[in-house]
Structures are given as C-alpha cells and as structure tokens.
Amino acid sequence: MDELKINFILNGRAVGISISPEMSLLTVLRDLCHVHSVKRACVEGECGACTVLVNGKAMNSCLILAATIEGKSVETVESLGRPGNLHPIQKAFVEMGASQCGFCTPGLIMAARALLDENPSPTEHEIRRALAGNLCRCTGYVKPVRAIMQAAAEIREVKQNV
C-alpha cells in the first residue's frame, strides 16, 4: 500500500513522517518516533496503557489511525517534567508510591493530566471515573487517586501564587 506523509506536533516538536495508511498512532509513536513510554498491551482500547493526549484529550493511541492526527498535537508523558524538575503529577506519584510495576503509570499520568487540565479540583469520584479506562493490576488505585488529589492541590497552589 502507498505511504502517506503526516505532520503533527509531538511533545511540542513538529514531526513529519511517512506511514502506511493502516498504522495506528501507537505503532507510529513506538516504532517510528521511538517513544516507548506509550505501552503496547491489549491493542483493543481496554487497558489504557497507551493513553496519550491528542489536542488535550486523553485517548487510547491503539485505537487511533495515525493518518487522523494530521495537524494535531500529541503529548506523551515525556512532555511533562524532567528529572530534577518533575511535573506535579509525576512528583505526587513518586511521593505517594503510586507506581508499583510501573507499566500503567504513563497512561495513568496522562489520564490525570487531561482531567486536571479540564477540572483543577476533582473529587475522588471524578478522579476514579477519569481513570476508569486505565487498567492497573498492582495498586488497587488507592495511591494513584491520592497522588492525583495531591497533584491537584499543588497545581492550584502554584496558580494562586502566580
């Protein structure tokens, strides 16, 4: 099949890449862009391990045809903080011990980011609903929920002091 050229923004940087029309965004990110924080797991949209933000909305990259992201912005966990300067969500996950095996952590963090961008003061119920598409077999969700609540409080505090 003929290749297709797509242009999009990945973690704040312009990307122009040739793809096969049937490729998923997950495949493009992992295999062509070498972004391995986006996990390949169920490939059916059931686990959330491949969650990324597309134009600010949390989406399962395994379900998105890469051709449809032309001109859009895609963010992965790499778009957040860096060692020594973590994003409040990343920092809270570390401080609260919200990661165990770590496989689901990037997807949970990106789902949390989308939630907090939309709702800076979520309730526990709203957090759990936002994480409903992310499967975690280790944590029981208690520590991730607490971490997101802590991150939300820190983000609100920073915004108040600006």
For the termini, the CA-CA separation is 52 Å
Find the CATH superfamily of the largest domain. Answer: Beta-grasp domain
Could you tell me the radius of gyration in angstroms?
16 Å
Main sheet? 5 strands, mixed
According to CATH, what is the class of the largest domain?
A: Alpha Beta
CATH topology of the largest domain: Ubiquitin-like (UB roll)
Q: How much helix is in the residues?
A: 25-40%
What does this structure look like?
The protein folds into 2 domains: 4-77, Ubiquitin-like (UB roll) (Roll), CATH 3.10.20; 88-160, Orthogonal Bundle (DNA polymerase, domain 1). It has helices spanning 25-32, 88-95, 105-118, 124-130, 142-160, and strands at 4-10, 13-19, 51-54, 57-60, 73-75. The protein has 162 residues and is of the alpha+beta class. The chain has 5 helices and 5 strands; from the N terminus they run E-E-H-E-E-E-H-H-H-H. 35% of the residues lie in helices and 15% in strands. Strands 2-1-5-3-4 form a 5-stranded mixed β-sheet, with helices on both faces.
Give the key terms.
35% helix, five-stranded mixed β-sheet, alpha+beta, Ubiquitin-like (UB roll), 162 residues, 5 helices, single chain, 2 domains, DNA polymerase, domain 1
